[in-house]
Amino acid sequence: MLDYDQLSALAAILRTGSFEKAARQLGLTSSAISQRIKALEERVGAVLVVRGQPCQPTPAGQRLFRHAEEVALLEAGLGRDLGAFADMARTPSLRLAVNADSLATWFVPAMAAVDAFLYDLVLDDQDHSADWLRRGEVRAAVSSSSQPVQGCDCRYLGRLRYFATASPAFMERWFPDGVTPERLAIAPTLTFNAKDMLQSRWLALVAGADLSPPTHWLPSSHGFVDGTLAGLGWGMNPEILVGDAVADGRLVVLLPGHPLDVPLYWHWSRSAGPALKSLTEAVLAAARQVLVQDLP
Amino acid sequence: MLDYDQLSALAAILRTGSFEKAARQLGLTSSAISQRIKALEERVGAVLVVRGQPCQPTPAGQRLFRHAEEVALLEAGLGRDLGAFADMARTPSLRLAVNADSLATWFVPAMAAVDAFLYDLVLDDQDHSADWLRRGEVRAAVSSSSQPVQGCDCRYLGRLRYFATASPAFMERWFPDGVTPERLAIAPTLTFNAKDMLQSRWLALVAGADLSPPTHWLPSSHGFVDGTLAGLGWGMNPEILVGDAVADGRLVVLLPGHPLDVPLYWHWSRSAGPALKSLTEAVLAAARQVLVQDLP
After folding, report:
1. Least confident of A219-223, A286-290, B83-87
2. For a surface tag, which of A27, B11, B46, B74 has the fewest beta carbons within 10 Å of its beta carbon?
3. Would an 8 Å CB–CB cutoff place A62 in contact with chain B?
4. CA neighbours closer than 13 Å in the CB half-sphere of residue B260
């Protein structure tokens, strides 16, 4: 079998991005960490880490990182079944891919309900988060895709409801005579990043045309809300994040009859299934509190 | 001179990440965009774009992208001086590097005060945001570094004050007998990402030792606050984001006499200076509202 002290060293380097930080985290010297990686590379017959700021895994290093996490999860299950309680320092890390708006609206309570893990969150767009699972770089993902991932199970979570919103001053300046396709074509909008299709999807739905208004780029869920409140542009914001601001008039809904619902699914690696059972239950419970529950 | 329609096509591709989205944004067909890039690559004698998801610039493409943005900024100044008012569709894009906690606390009002730009925000750690400016990939940056960047001017903004905070339940579980180095070594903490040194810096200050407690990784300013409120771990949170929660007892300050202050500086490219004058004023004014102003 492999040397798991060596694998732990590899995982710590890839998680912290450097040999020095990994050494500190494991209570070792940098040279001890280097020796472990060198020995593991010789054992496997491949380079595992590309040194840099941060250090990056080679494909072989990525595959071993995944293996180290899977084994740590299995060991945690063993500890539970045998009645042995691991101290927090040995709590396994669990890498998850979550979309930023889920983190901003409903996901934190699910994590907090299960203290069996140290969470290692990767943020990506809901249309792309399942790719992390497909590539084996995370153990579970919140995704808008219902398409099964090989070796993974999937549960429907509900729909995150978005409304196109803007400040009253912005409405007055850009939509003085109502929200028309002509004005939607020129009023500045907000876009989270190049993967964010919500604004263009909503525009296609309500304007029936392929509009590309000028846009600001603002890669933060709360920054998006703050930018909308400040009048930078209109943007698709989760109803739960802007409900209060809409109720007290700080924000206006562009077309109240036209929300955009994004279905979300919880995908998890079957090999990690037993270890993830309580987290899956917590994720479903937290989603039920916030997401719209009828099927799309 | 270069063909600026070709340069606009390049900038749109690198901003949106794809030929198709760039075509839509400029109201062109995909094949027209491809032809422009091909012509520009022939003119320059170098490949400019590596196709992919998203499309990435080559070094030559990156340099031309920067040039296109600089020219757009100069043209905007020309429009102002000649009394011609550009419509919003021709508003120049301005790429800025900002740390996530600045975006979450004080930066949005500065952007909203100046509507001469479409903002294109890059988020990076305050210790690394100036690198974007050094590499010529942004026109200005909010950074913790006072070190001058070549070709750039710099102004001190003030200090963002952080407190180590945790939920009352977390305090009871992990610090029942007070906050001691022994408990700080094992109580789980939060870390934004591998670049985030705030927790370890604070630990070195208060514990006088190089502690590496187990950590969750949570790359979002508000996620960090929510994770702290939910009891996942303790974390360094900006005073302005957690003041209310501390006041009403939902959060506890670990060692009230030991804040951590991060000095922030506004660096901007001198060549973009005239175009950025009003933004620099707005940035200084917004910083004064939130940041601690006495010199460190």
Report:
1. B83-87
2. A27
3. no
4. 22
Write out chain B residues lying below 8 Å of A217, CB-based. Answer: 15, 119-121
* Spatial CB neighbours of B211, under 8 Å, sequence gap ≥ 6: B181, B184, B185, B200, B203, B204
Write out pLDDT tens, residues A232-245: 999 999 999 999 99
Binary contact (B88, A187; C-beta < 8 A): yes
Please list every residue in chain A whose beta carbon sits closer than 8 Å to the beta carbon of residue B227: 108, 111-112
Q: Which chain B residues are closer than 8 Å to A232 by Cβ?
A: 108, 111-112, 119
Q: Is B86 helix (H, G, I), strand (E, B) or coil?
A: coil
Beta-strand relationship, A93-98 and A118-123: parallel
User: What confidence score (pLDDT) does residue A82 get?
Assistant: 59
Parse chain B into domains and list their residue ranges: 1-91, 160-261
- Identify the CATH number of the domain defined by range B1-91: 1.10.10.10
As a whole number of Å, the CA-based R_g of chain A is 23
Cis-peptide, bond into residue B54, ω within 30° of zero: yes
Contact A194 B17 (CB under 8 A): yes
**pLDDT value for A71:** 78
Average pLDDT of chain B to the nearest whole number: 90
Decide: helix, strand or coil at residue A119: strand
Q: Is the model more confident about A153 or about B52?
A: A153
Q: What confidence tens digit (pLDDT) does each residue in B170-228 have?
A: 999 999 999 999 999 999 999 999 889 999 999 999 998 788 899 999 999 999 999 99
The domain over range A1-86 is classified in CATH as 1.10.10.10: yes
A272: number of Cβ within 10 Å:
21
Mark yes or no for CB contact A194/B54 under 8 Å: yes
The CATH number for B160-261, chosen from 3.40.190.10, 3.90.20.10, 3.40.50.450, 3.40.50.880, is 3.40.190.10
Task: Check: CB of residue B227 under 8 Å from CB of residue A108.
Answer: yes
CA distance B127 to chain A (A): 13
